[in-house]
Amino acid sequence: MSIDKYTVKQILNIEACTRCGLCSEVCSAYNANMDIDISPAKKLELLKKRIRANTLFGKIFSRHAFTQKELGILAKGAYECTLCSRCEVDCPVNIDLQKLWISLRADMADEGKSPEALNMLKERLEKSYNISFDSNQGRVEWINQVEEIPEDKYVREKADVVYFVGCVSSFSPRVFKIPRSVVSLFKLAKVDFALLGDEEWCCGFPLLGSGFKQEFIEFAKHNIEKVNATGARYLVTSCPSCYHMWTHTYREANLDIKMNFKVLHTVQYLYELAKSRALKLYPLNLKVTYHDPCDLGRNSGIYDEPRELIKKIPGTIFVELENNRENAECCGGGGNVEAVDRELSEKIAQTKAREIIKTRAEIVVTACQQCVRTISGALKKQNSKIKVMDISELILLSATANKD
Ligand code: SF4
Ligand code: SF4
Questions:
Q1: Which-ligand-closest: CA of 20?
Q2: Which pLDDT score is estimated for 297?
Q3: Residue 318: pLDDT above 90?
Q4: Which of 116, 119, 238, 287 has the highest Cβ tally under 10 A?
Q5: Rounded to 5, what percent of the chain is helix, strand, coil?
Q6: Ligand (nearest to CA of 295)
Q7: How far is the CA of 38 from the centre of ligand 1 (A)?
């Protein structure tokens, strides 16, 4: 057993679990099917047994060995989880559950229990440095539809800002409108920016989140080196998972390379542009609600900027979802669940869609390409006419509203 996949703190946390079950009550993966085997409390219970059975202390005092059947149940629970962190909000003993679930995946991967879809994802990443089936040369194809693009397509050696697009927005046509909107806004605000082109590699989160805990380091070092070389003061990304990797995981990994720039999510950068009037916002007269992406909200603590930014648009009526900020429900698109169990991912998204419909908003705004994908699909299935937009699209709509 790979007990080394867990930190000492995590092992102590597992022992500290009181089995109160509060985490399971709010877990959207568990609630989707009421499958007790994937509930966080069950995972804790099995983990406690697994650790006890495999430490020297455990071997002396534990009466039961950890069975292959239990290992199978634990592996299922490990991967049928969106890594949304909702479970840790109400935990009375403050267990850092999301990080524990990532360690659990590393443990399961070591046992050869990671799903085939994630093993294949790892192979693709190691071959082409992105999550798609395409070559990394195609990283900026999406830009061809943006008006008046220079010949270099903004792939430049020097710039004040580097826009780190992320794999999904770079390769999934369904969300190309996100990087196109960001670039259009940067042009409008006269931002001196660059794209890394095929030198932008995946941030590494799909590897880490699949249980391959060390493999992201090569990706992190490459990306930091490339951004440092541009002399940029800021790295801006529209992907919450990339943002969380750059601001938390890369730093916590104690890499032997320094970041000479500040990392911001587009909600933060666009908010600053709007505040300084580099971007002027014109009335839209729309009723808007906002979905907090897990990696931006709960996992990174960014709740105010997107709300303030939306409220800066004249005429906009902002309504909160019933579950918002740290209590926000996941959209179902996190934790690679879509690749492992599409049906589960869709069920979680349906719950989210029902909550959005209740607000009677005309637009649901979010700040994540993956949330845009899953929520759009779920609202469509419920025949809802509510539009789903990334915040960059909404801001572009407002910034160009005077042109109509
Ligand atoms: S991270 Fe989300 S899906 Fe996973 S156990 Fe916690 S609440 Fe459930
Ligand atoms: S909420 Fe915390 S203490 Fe309660 S069962 Fe879940 S992990 Fe254990």
A1: 2
A2: 98
A3: yes
A4: 238
A5: 55, 10, 40
A6: 1
A7: 9
* Whole-number pLDDT of residue 180: 98
pLDDT tens by residue, 127-166: 999 999 899 999 999 999 999 999 999 999 999 999 999 9
What separation in Å is there between the alpha carbon of 74 and the centre of ligand 1? 14
The DSSP secondary structure of 30-51, one letter per residue, reads HHHHT-GGGSHHHHHHHHHHHH
Residue 207 CA to residue 212 CA, distance in Å, equals 5
Is the per-residue pLDDT at 2 higher than 80?
no
CATH topology of domain 3-114: Fumarate Reductase Iron-sulfur Protein; Chain B, domain 2 (1.10.1060)
Ligand 1 atom 4: residue of nearest CA: 81
Q: How does pLDDT run across 329-356, given as a tens digit for each residue?
A: 999 999 999 999 999 999 999 999 999 9
Domain extent listing, the chain = 3-114, 123-272, 281-403
Q: Is 98 in the pocket of ligand 1 (CB under 6 A)?
A: yes
The CATH architecture to which 281-403 belongs is 3-Layer(aba) Sandwich (3.40)
For residue 16, the ligand 2 atom closest to its alpha carbon is: 3
CATH architecture designation of domain 123-272: 3-Layer(aba) Sandwich (3.40)
